């Protein structure tokens, strides 16, 4: 079997590495010529359009998946008409658009924060009343790591933002828009105590397995650390997280790994967003679980039985963002450095360190030791 | 860093898969066009000679290693004069020649069975007296899995073999020789209770780590099952096995993974042979240990710190030889199937199954369950 992955970054790269021991071959498709996945699998290098190279890529593989949710729908459509694509087009349709995604969660009974659609000056001002200040305004499509987002914490900031985005008679201003997107979602601020994420997997006959939810910490808007299982998570919340994930998996007739982020608040869980793919907050599972997220994603889309997701111990994933770690970390007990084969640049994810320990106390000590070796 | 591996079979393949997470790139060199390693890394396809393709292969990689011990010495010499080659030429010099290898063990104080050189009719008949009947005659070079070997269990068989190999005035007969090799070693039969092997690793600054010795069972002369740690191994024998391995590592100024096979007899340990490479009897370490043999081999030759070799549990490696295993084995707890991407043919190693368990009793049950799924 040959699997084609849309996207040749570190996620596609790690899918290939995890799938090779299963006897599966991989090709990656990416517009960037030096995509790091190209170091471990054949890279088809062309724009994300229905190019001749894409047609060749589709011809030469049996099953398709993607490493990022912004795959153009027409490209997904081209593939779906010819070969299996997992998790599929529905997952893309919802995850590419923050309003559709939010409404889907509402329909499934998954708790969301108050939100409102904004596409002109009037709806922006109305949103401030409906969801309340403070709120955050996000483009409905594109944007990540805080890009295309605005915080509104006062009436003054609201007027300022209205003038910036919709200055002329309430019309959208192309120059100040992010990536040309003029449709927004206003979301009420969530006062959360921590972020949790859950990785789940569904196979082609409907079996679902779940990884332990992780607790995630960010630095400068980028994931810094995930700890799993999330400490002090009540059985009730664990059951809720799995239940919400299962609803979404079934609603989307999903095949593969699904990631959902939640906020834990004093009033309970509130969903943030989902990603129809393997996720940075699940990288700890590579050594931390009997079967890692990458392998289980490949098993699911290849029609193979899912692997057991039991934890080997408590685990952490420490992201290497714009920094490397000293090689001496590799000699630490049950510390596993994964490098993505990328040059180091500010804010760029160049690798991660998986850390296993007997208990949370030892885990924290090892995290501190790794932290001291990051340079 | 780019590592070039001589040989593109499953061992080279698994080296690449283990090295990719370390950010290392791989190329494999193999005369066979459809070598299974070519599915996961670039394959340089040409004979094992100093070809133009070999020169290109050497130019395009930084460090070299091999997946089999019969690398022609002139080819090793070509590389050594230009780039680092690990474990190096010395390891090949001894492991390619059974007499040199045996003498090396004698010099290092590692117990060997009685042996004698045979290269004509007279020395064959003398050997029968020196080492005693029964004995086994092996070509000094080449041969594996019983090829190029003869058992002599009586005077009649001795005469027969003498007539076959050295019929004319004691001269060697080319037609009946194996692969044109006319030099032999006669080895006294070893009445062993079991075969043990130990995998060890030495890095570029002389640090050595050891894996738990494994107990190996063969079927039709091919490794069938390895169990690690070898059950009921005395502390004294464990210390001896590690001590012998360390002597050999240091004598050869070795870098990388070294495998040594021993017979356990009523009178103690007797060495069988060593292989200067990752070894089938160490495959259980991929999931069974904190750091597997393939990753540690790559760490060693890449100049990185060695990883911890502690066991995660008790483990077994079940070889898939000429048979496949039902996909349902993948759903078993802590059972990991590794396929090599090869077509199934009689006696061909097409994959292996790593099995982890809490204790030997559970391990045996899981081995039996896997066995029932092999078809």
Key attributes of the depicted protein:
homodimer, 375 residues, alpha+beta, Rossmann fold, Dna Ligase, domain 1, D-amino Acid Aminotransferase, Chain A, domain 1, 3 domains, 9-stranded antiparallel beta sheet, 4-stranded parallel beta sheet, 11 helices, 28% strand
Q: What does this molecule look like?
A:
Chains A, B: Pfam families: ATP-grasp (PF02222), PurK_C (PF17769), RS_preATP-grasp-like (PF22660). Chains A, B: GO terms for molecular function: 5-(carboxyamino)imidazole ribonucleotide synthase activity. Chains A, B: Belongs to the PurK/PurT family. Chains A, B: Pathway: Purine metabolism; IMP biosynthesis via de novo pathway; 5-amino-1-(5-phospho-D-ribosyl)imidazole-4-carboxylate from 5-amino-1-(5-phospho-D-ribosyl)imidazole (N5-CAIR route): step 1/2. Two copies of one chain form a homodimer. Chain A is of the alpha+beta class. The first copy, chain A, folds into three domains: 84 residues, Rossmann fold (3-Layer(aba) Sandwich), CATH 3.40.50; 75 residues, ATP-grasp fold, A domain (Dna Ligase, domain 1); 182 residues, D-amino Acid Aminotransferase, Chain A, domain 1. Chain A has eleven helices and 17 strands. In chain A, strands 9, 10, 11, 12, 13, 14, 15, 16 and 17 form a nine-stranded antiparallel beta sheet that branches. In chain A, strand 9 and strand 10 form a beta hairpin. The mean pLDDT of chain A is 95. The interface between A and B is medium-sized, with 33 and 33 residues.
């Amino acid at each position: 079997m040959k699997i084609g992955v849309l996207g040749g970054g570190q996620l596609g790269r790690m899918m290939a590495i995890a799938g090779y021991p299963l006897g599966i071959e991989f090709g990656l498709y990416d517009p960037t010529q030096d995509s790091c996945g190209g170091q471990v699998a054949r890279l088809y290098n062309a724009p994300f359009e229905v190019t001749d190279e894409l047609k060749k890529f589709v011809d030469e593989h049996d099953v398709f998946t993607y490493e990022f949710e912004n795959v153009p729908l027409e490209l997904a459509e081209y593939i779906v008409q010819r070969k299996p694509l997992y998790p599929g087009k529905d997952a893309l349709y919802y995850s590419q658009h923050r309003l559709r995604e939010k409404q889907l969660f509402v329909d499934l009974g998954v708790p969301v924060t108050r939100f409102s659609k904004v596409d002109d000056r009037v709806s922006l001002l109305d949103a401030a009343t409906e969801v309340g200040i403070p709120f955050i305004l996000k483009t409905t499509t594109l944007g990540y790591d805080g890009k295309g987002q605005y915080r509104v914490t006062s009436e003054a900031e609201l007027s300022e933002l209205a003038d910036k985005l919709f200055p002329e008679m309430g019309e959208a201003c192309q120059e100040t828009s992010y990536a040309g997107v003029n449709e927004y979602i206003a979301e009420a601020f969530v006062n959360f105590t921590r972020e949790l994420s859950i990785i789940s997997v569904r196979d082609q006959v409907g079996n679902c397995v779940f990884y332990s939810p992780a607790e995630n910490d960010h630095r400068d808007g980028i994931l810094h650390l995930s700890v799993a299982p999330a400490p002090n998570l009540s059985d009730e919340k664990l059951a809720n997280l799995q239940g919400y994930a299962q609803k979404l998996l079934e609603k989307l007739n999903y095949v593969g790994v699904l990631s959902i982020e939640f906020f834990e608040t004093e009033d309970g869980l509130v969903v943030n967003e989902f990603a129809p793919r393997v996720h940075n907050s699940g990288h700890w599972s590579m050594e931390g679980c009997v079967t890692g997220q990458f392998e289980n994603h490949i098993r699911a889309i290849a029609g193979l039985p899912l692997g057991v997701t039991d934890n080997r111990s408590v685990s952490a994933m420490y992201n290497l963002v714009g920094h490397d770690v000293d090689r001496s970390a590799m000699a630490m007990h049950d510390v596993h450095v994964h490098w993505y084969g990328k040059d180091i640049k500010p804010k760029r994810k160049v690798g991660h360190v998986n850390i296993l320990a007997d208990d949370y106390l030892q885990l924290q000590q090892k995290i501190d030791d790794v932290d001291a070796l990051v340079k």
